[in-house]
Structure of Guanosine nucleotide diphosphate dissociation inhibitor:
Amino acid sequence: MKSMMWSCWVPGLKECILSGLLSVDGLKVLHMDRNDYYGGESASLNLIQLWKRFRGNDKPPAHLGSSRDYNVDMIPKFMMANGNLVRVLIHTDVTKYLYFKAVDGSYVLNKGKVHKVPATDMEALKSPLMGIFEKRRARKLFIYVHNYEESDPKTHEGMDLTRVTTRELIAKFGLDDNTIDFIGHAMALHRDDHYLNEPAMDTVMRMKLYAESFARFEGGSPYIYPLYGLGELPQAFARLSAVYGGTYMLNKPGCKVEFDEEGKVAGVTSEGETAKCKKVVCDPSYLQVRKVGKVARAIAIMSHPIPSTDESHSVQVILPQKQLGRRSDMYLFCCSYTHNVAPKGKFIAFVSTEAETDHPEVELKPGIELLGPVDEIFFDIYDIHEPVNEPSLDNCFISTSYDATTHFESTVTDVLNMYTMITGKVLDLSVDLSAASAAEE
């Protein structure tokens, strides 16, 4: 007999993923949304919707093409081909609702120039990022990471990576600061340099994930991305939840969470009607949270690929903090008509970072300068929130806001943490990833 529990949802992408996971587990899910579309802030907009959001009543210029040919992500992110989101998709069989295409390139800014990120020891030997002697040292580190198995002490070379810091591990291989910069930020995908003084295990596992993801598809990067944009993801998880008995109510304004005399959630009210439930999951716009930062983002429509990326039609470029004199990294994300997110010949580029000022136009300039000429550009800045409640006391599970990164690893970590808090168990993601290949176009 499957356990049954009513849960109300007021959702973005994270909440849609959770509703799918819990529906598969046999929980009853009622999904309420103030919007008339799925995904909340992580939706994909057509051209008219994009203009309405940023330009009010202005109309898009005709030369940009048909509105319906655009699917512009509001929270643009690629998926690691071997990462946890792909594993969740396979675990839930959501892959049957989606089609993916490999992302063409992964690049990093170094000394003012854009370079391809080497993912293997052989790529390291060819990379212009390093001199000949540095290449040999980097190759030795890549081989060490490739061979490292936590359960096999023979691969550890006498180092306990739960105690040795990343700085100490890198010192063993004698790498210079520029090499450390691209390895830590463009391969291990750390957002700042705090990782250098943390145990090296996390960085080595992140490097392994990058290399394994790179090897999964014959593309130029470790990333994949769904055709028609990320707006397909919440819709796919909504379909999954419905298959397992989930109920969906869109366009429900003013959702208000109700509590009983003990301070525990009792239901969600909209338009004078209350749906009773035992647990609520929602994004930070619904309940008490605290502001922990801001994200600055630029969205550009272009008629060409990003320069210096080998004419890549889809690409990520990471601008490490040290290269820019900032406290955190900047990210450049580009996709195009090849992923069915724009008309033929058009490219959609995003530049994002954790905001350190209230002037995104100025702050994002280093990334915008890498784009070349743009047809149109929009600027956005939004707050990052995290919950302040104690879910074990009130049964409210609040997701954190989406960060500035252009990959899904931190997003899925938040989802899986909430899943464990709600169910008391860890989701088993040790799945056969060969199924993911079938979902790629």
